[in-house]
Amino acid sequence: MLEEHTLFKKHITKRIDLEDSEFEQFLNFFSTKIVTKRQFITQPDFVPSHRSFVCTGAMRAYILDDSGNEHTIQFAIENWWITDYNAYIYQRPATMFVMAQENSTLLQISHEKELELKALNPKFETFFRIMAERSTAYMQRRVIERLTLSAEERYQHFLDKYSLMVNRFPQYTIASYIGVTTEFLSRMRKNRLLK
Amino acid sequence: MLEEHTLFKKHITKRIDLEDSEFEQFLNFFSTKIVTKRQFITQPDFVPSHRSFVCTGAMRAYILDDSGNEHTIQFAIENWWITDYNAYIYQRPATMFVMAQENSTLLQISHEKELELKALNPKFETFFRIMAERSTAYMQRRVIERLTLSAEERYQHFLDKYSLMVNRFPQYTIASYIGVTTEFLSRMRKNRLLK
DNA sequence: AAATAATATTGATCTACATCAATAATTTTT
DNA sequence: AAAAATTATTGATGTAGATCAATATTATTT
To answer: Which of A63, A122, A144 sits opposite B125 (nearest CB)?
Structure first.
């Protein structure tokens, strides 16, 4: 089995218990896609046909507001999933860009195939349920952080939780993820050094 | 069948296709709970044992930050589900209060029962998957709104989308949901009148 | 190794929103 | 119908973080 498939298998079987043959069946619904740095896999106004699992590399989802500012919605490195979630599940035109931040290898499943897959075996349905539940929980934590923490605290949390991301994404993308300008993040970092 | 069960049935069967007998089975895992205004069904430090569906009434989930300020995480009126999501799915101590904002009737399922239920019939699993997916999508929209919209715009969106909520929850709770102080929301409302 | 493009820093200034304190209005309880 | 409790408004003032513009640094391409 290919190296990236081993990691994918680990990822899946950590969440649901599968026979080897079941995993093979699961895997068969996915196709490999290679993207190069700065390449987009999703763009506004196009319905995103796939959900992507990052085998190697780094991806980022962001939106552009009316003033032309980027706001990072999600980062994804190895073993993370990424897509324009709203657009994907409702099969509506995307509002996000999903871009390769590094050359990346993805495992992709189409929306149609995903429906088939879930119908095939209740365990597969369970897998997607668990993923969705955890995503909700994660998003809710993000809402809570935004409501209750200062910019500095949000940055510290980011460093604590996503230390692996910090060095792989430009600083301005992290600023846009925690909800500050790149200038302000720069100043916060300077202040920390002075202390 | 009781009136509230009819609404519950509609809610479920809108998402998955069930025989009457299957719905009866589903319903059997739930118990009815009546709560009076200002009563808490979840408090910080206690593991929330249940997920609740509001048959009648109005509930609100909020957290208290270090300065003692309330931040509303979720509103729920008829046909909405509510719980401390993170705490419930991971069965950890809650960080939220979930409080009755009006006298309410709830249909509750315990975490244990929910596990049983999902194992019983793949359709039930599908139901929870769909719910979780939509919750993720909803939460993500909220993250995006917070990143891209001004306080006024967030308030307008709230009015547009949750007009039914507006008159059933105190204004300060709406302020805390969109992420402003009650004073500032009051001022925004005044400015709108002047225009 | 230059040239170019992308990213990060710094300074000056501005503003959206918070804080604090008082009062007014509304709802609930007795 | 008062009294008490809860919620909403208003004014004065403060500040976290934004904006704009310039420059410095780092990474990428030729």
So the answer is: A122
